[in-house]
Amino acid sequence: MTAKTSPDAVSSDYAAMLPYWEMVETILDGADAMKEAGEDYLPKFPNETTEDYEYRRENAKFTNIYADIATNLASKPFAEEVKLDDQAGPKFEALAEDIDGRGNNLHVFAASTFFEGINNAVAWIMVEFTRAIPNPDGTRLSIAQEKAQGLRPYWVNVPAKRLLAVYTDVVGGQEIIVHARIREDLTRRSGYDEVSVERVRVLNREPIVDAFNRVTAYAPATFEVFERLSDGKGGSAWTSVDAGAITIGVIPLVPFITGRRKGGSWRFVPPLRDAAHLQVEHYQQETALKSIKELTAFPMLAGNGVQPAIVDGKPAMVPVGPRSVLYAPPSGGDNNSHGEWAFIEPSSESLRFLAEDVKNTEQQLRELGRQPLTAQTGITVVSAAFASQKASSAIQAWALGLKDALEQGMVLTAAWLNETTAPTVSVFTDFALDAADDKGPTVLTEARKNGDLSRVTYWEELQRRNILSADFDPEEEMNRLDEELPNPDDAADLGAATTPPADPETPPANDQQAA
Length: 515
Description:
This protein is of the alpha+beta class. 39% of the residues lie in helices and 20% in strands. Strand 4 and strand 5 (174-183) form a beta hairpin. The model is unreliable at 371-391 and 511-515 (pLDDT under 50).
């Protein structure tokens, strides 16, 4: 077996997951990407010519239900802002407003990480620190110099496809990252042109072994950056362009995982795997239905007993349509023997079957994606409620995992800042109940009428179900209700003003009874 010496070599875990990541990436990129992938997702029919296949591929139909599923699921934890706790302090608050140095706050960064994690089963957060320009005399930078240089921690969203390799070990009962390679290709401007540069960042911690060659610990982390540069001989070679120590001592990578991890490896069972594969099948079915409609749904003209005109050795094309006249002259000496034109129109039963098949696949795909139930799905209320509950619990688990990953990122950020404590992060996990369940508000209203719920609790539950808006203020509503209560004096005056005067000709009720 040949040893891997190139920094862009991938791990076996990466190689195992890459086909799935590429499939999901292609699906999310849309119809053009699916068509460009060709036979990867739209196989040729047996004996299909290249010309016919290319026509079918270029005119393929792709309805991206998977992207709708992923976007809908990924939006749920972000109905409320992802933010730091009240004790975070101004330094962390300022960083949270621009967590990646590109103007994205913590909420936006978290949403991007969550979307990546749902689709790829894992996403990575790298907590970096801007490089300082040292003093010429080697003295330590002052606080003013650090501020002038804009030195600060910043977060980098590392998609799974860019993390070429990651290796971990358990030391002191804790799993730590001991090696990672990250693809960081970039584009540089060269005058009015652009130059693409292949680049890989290597993060490493060397093992420390005892006299029995057992690993007891790992050395502080280092980094090295490689670029593929010209070797001056018409070829290229990987060249180290930067290296140094990571001053916090650890590899600053944090995984956000949604898939089921396989043992101690970095392979996963993606949560939306079945939905992604079914989306590809739906693409094939839709395209097949479209092709079959083009081949069979239009009537074909047939000439029976008609001798075709020959042009350049081939039968001439017959004009069909308005302002066209077709002749069927006698085919022989007998005037009763003549040709005829007729249209052949295939039965539409097969098309109905295929259309229903596409519809059923779409229904299965939406149910696999745990989408909110629509009136067209046709499944029972019980199964709908069960599917909704599964979705909510799954997303809640992912949201809690995101919270943990963000807080681990804050721990690394605190290490870069030489802070002893890190702030906690608030991520919304109390998702509203399924919109199809319209009995919830009725039950709450009855409980309120019976005195089993306080007014504030009733409002909170309505707000949680998105019946009341997110900015509903209970205290303000209390004040408004108090303002609507009638003043006792005003009520007495109003009662006097609206009481009709007594009719002098009508005797009192007691007199009537006496009479």
